[in-house]
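Risk register update: the risk of archive-format incompatibility is retired. Evidence:
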Amino acid sequence: MVVPRISPPSPKRWEPPSKKSPYEARSVDASELASVRLGLIHNPMAGQNRRQPCDLHAYEEALGPGALIRETRQGRDLAPVMEELQSAGVTSIVVDGGDGTLGAAITEAVFRYGEEALPVFVPLCGGSFNAVARNLGSPRLDRPELLRHLRAALSDGGRGLREKQVGTLRLHDPRAPRDVFGFILMAGIPFKLDEYIYSKGGTAESTALYCLANMLVGGLLGNALGKRIFSDTPARVSIDGEDCGCSSFKITVATTLHRLLPGVAPCPPPPGASEGRFSYLVNYMATREMFKRTVKLFMNNYHGDPKHLTGHARTLTLHSHRAGYSLDGEMVRAVDDVDLDLQSGVPVRMWVVAPPDPFQA
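Archived output:
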């Protein structure tokens, strides 16, 4: 009997990050698109979807009859939906929600598909802040229109389709039933700022910038808001197993994205996802010290102070952490002592669709 020789799949060759394209990226070959099956997860409770609701029939029309489209209103809806997508052979999942929905979908996909066989994700700006989609350069178009461009790109051999690879964070909270994946972890001042933003009605850019300005003024004047947000958060912090030397901190941030707010980049740019590291910031300065260097701290232009640490890491642990934190804007409020362990997570492939240029022949 002759046993056919099956060659292993060729490794994907990524273009390294650059200033113009800050994520590992590549063009999609037409031969890879023959077996693509699309699925879509729609979260009607996400911020943008609440403000501008879209009927699922519009998505069905945009993606065509072969797409599997499902609605998930709560986190517990995701597990059976992801099982259905995997069983149906879906290879590319459009996520119509915000950063929290995208992280939850990736978490479910890791446990359903497995880390080595993850589908490609297409993030839409269906949430309030949409940090991932905007960092990747997703066009700000009507969502059904963008999906029509996606379908056209798949039919045209991948023309206008760009694949980017983004690292994730893997968070182990011993109170949770399993690890979760995401892109931005915030504790200390950023978590309390998130709480303040949510109290004002959501995480739209305008609301976030308004609350950020109020926070800075409050900290400068020492009013009740400023004192609450700028208070220390008890916990020791270690990075790659090395203690940072603090018993409490002002800010801890870990991210695989390049910007957290428009025009604000307090962490160094993360390396390529294949390197398996994320960017971090740990600050335990006094409030008055922070205000002397506000602009430099916001733009990652302040270095050499042992109380303000930035860099790249594979692991970060908050020991005996007695406060809440947020992962991609999803708030976890707690007061009991836990050790939060953060590791570099699985790289995720994302598709970004460039609409055709009407001025090109």
